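User: Can you predict the 3D structure of Polyprenyl synthetase? Sequence below.
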Amino acid sequence: MTNLAASIGTKAFCRSVEDRVRQQVDSLPPAIRGPACHHFGIREAGGKSPGMGKIARSRLCAELASMVDGPHVTIPRERAITAATAIEMIHNFGLIHDDIMDQDEERRGRKAVWVAYGTGMAILLGDILLATAVKIAASVGNTRIADIFNQAIGKLIEGQLLDMGSNIGTTLEELWGIAEKKTASLFELAAMSIAELACVTQRQGEAMESFSRHYGVAFQYMNDAASFFAGNSHDPRALSDIKNRRATLPAVLLVQNALPGSDALIAHFSDDQPLTGGAAYEIMRALRSDAVRDMARQAVLQELEMAQNALSAEFEPCSVLALASEMLDSKILGGLMSPC
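Assistant: Sure. Here are the predicted structure tokens for Polyprenyl synthetase:
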């Protein structure tokens, strides 16, 4: 059995996961392989491959594996990579279906699958990725991990249901619950898969789970805020959030605190008429205010602090905590700290 930390670094681990995903795409039925290649950025026109995104969940798997690895713990490399590959497949199933439900036309700088290939094909691609993920997870050969995967999938879908039912009256507490299920569930899955493979103690497993939960919520909050504070006032992602009446972190903070511009946002959520360009930019200005930025930043920092505290209670400072530190130093959080 190969020791993970001694044989492979985080970058190499993530490259191995990407290679496995490509292999899975190559094995799909020919009729759906094209849409899959498009979604994952494989064999794009001109020979360029923009990549598969952040694969943040795979990176968390690698960092946590290195953290718990030691003289008395040997994590099977192949099983860890296999579990991470399955997690990435589930994540992309969620993205494809989410784009359909949210009517988002772009994903990773290219057309969403439902726009490029039709809604039916996008639904089927998401379905086959989920089925493939379940098969891959089963191949790890650990019934406990199979159970953890099934629970995470259910939690992810429940989060999507809650997200669909969210509105301008959604509270910050309810938004946290949506993020915890819809986004953090797969970060928790990454952590608990490594915990199971490493046979950590119950307290260590709980610390890893708590860290990944709060880190995942912070990750979602950052994504919510990124389109408003890391871009410009014409950022298409932010305009899409407004026009499609999404209960994002900035929107919830604006309304819950009755800040200037909240009345216009409430009126927009209550009206089923299309939003005009002028009204959209007026709401955008309100959402990009200093007050909203400061509160969004505080919400992210609070989750990151809880994530760090949870892990530090059982483990020495390590590279996993650098994941949270990187978020603190990122351009996105930097945008939250700078005037609009």
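The chain has two domains: 1-141, 171-339. The chain has a mean pLDDT of 86.
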